[in-house]
Write a structure and sequence with these properties.
The protein is an alpha/beta fold. The chain contains six helices and eleven strands. The strands form two sheets. The protein has a nine-stranded mixed beta sheet, with helices on both faces. A two-stranded antiparallel sheet has the order 2-3.
């Protein structure tokens, strides 16, 4: 089974004081640490598990600059056979442009399955997988929590709203957006990453893909990024039920809410 996995290197924004850049288009990233996108980490692990069980090759692909090769080396250390980085130059990358670039690369790679993460941890976009499936003309399922291949199809479990699951079948070739928790991603050692340096990592410039200007024109633009205004926080009301009820009624009346 030949599998392509789309991965992304993202800044770690948890538990840090974020600052907006002078252009007010994004947060400042120069002082942030980076890591593989959490959902993509599960996707690459699932691809390697499927390869170990059914054979085939795993190819990791990313759209990014040279520093983004860090996540590709991690994928190679986890068990991917080869990696491809697309150098985007000065392009503005929204989900449409990223998916169009990935589609053009994946067309040239033999694949039964294409795996993506459900969403990206940096801006919480979850559109790339669906758009990519459309560009490639592939059967598609999102928020997948189990994959069980058999012949030319797979039984898949999909996480739905309200804590319910759906079990269905999908024919290959197909694209699956992988949910966290589908597996337990393996630990990658420094020695493993060094050994992975011997595996193939190909760099392709976006100009080499033959995409048109329309293909590389974003559908989404950011007008402004800003931090939410500071508030006074929550008010804790203490006392017996009667006292609490009277205080809630007072607050409601002060806020102008009719009862």
């Amino acid at each position: 089974m030949d599998i392509v996995v789309c991965v992304k290197r993202v800044p770690l924004t948890q538990e840090v004081d974020l600052e907006i850049d002078p252009q007010k288009k994004e947060v400042r990233k120069d002082m942030l640490a980076y890591s593989i996108n959490e959902w993509d980490n599960y996707a690459i692990e699932e691809a390697v598990l499927l390869k170990e069980k059914f054979g085939g090759d795993v190819t990791a692909v990313t759209v990014g600059v040279e520093d983004d090769e860090e996540v590709l080396r991690r994928c190679l250390a986890m068990g991917a056979d080869r990696a491809i980085r697309v150098e985007p130059g000065d392009l503005s990358l929204d989900p449409f442009v990223i998916s169009r670039i990935l589609a053009e690369v994946i067309k040239g790679v033999k694949h039964d399955l294409v795996l993506t993460g459900v969403q990206a941890d940096d801006v919480n976009d979850g559109a790339v997988g669906t758009m990519l499936a459309e560009h490639l003309g592939l059967n598609h399922a999102a928020v997948v929590t189990r994959v069980e291949p058999e012949g030319n199809e797979a039984t898949i479990h999909i996480e739905l709203e309200g804590g319910t699951d759906e079990v269905s079948k999908i024919k290959f070739p197909a694209l699956l957006s992988i949910q966290t928790g589908i597996n337990e991603p393996r630990y990658v050692s420094i020695m493993g990453i060094r050994k992975a340096a011997k595996k193939e990592l190909k760099v392709v410039k976006v100009e080499e893909l033959g995409l048109s200007e329309d293909d590389l024109t974003p559908w989404v633009s950011v007008d402004e990024v800003f931090l939410p205004p500071e508030t006074e926080g929550a008010e804790i009301i203490e006392g017996d039920p009667g006292t609490v009820a009277e205080e809630i009624l007072r607050i409601i009346k002060e806020k102008g809410v009719s009862t």
